[in-house]
Fold Phosphopantetheine-binding protein.
Amino acid sequence: MPSPTSSLTLDSVLLDVAAVLGEEPADVSVDENLQDLGLDSIRVMTLVERWRAAGHRVEFAELIEATPTIRGWHAHLTAS
């Protein structure tokens, strides 16, 4: 059985981040700095809670310390 984080694909992280930013996924680059796009701590917490509710093991502090891009977050989330 795959771990819960294995279902977090690059595309699913992109879709979730774009949703909390109120952007179209096509308008968000996976390599763009999320802070530059307006992703603040409240929105990060929203993502953490969304992913936890879906069964993923996600820590707010770890995301804040990870490279603030969708690609960076995806790599961090799927590393374990």
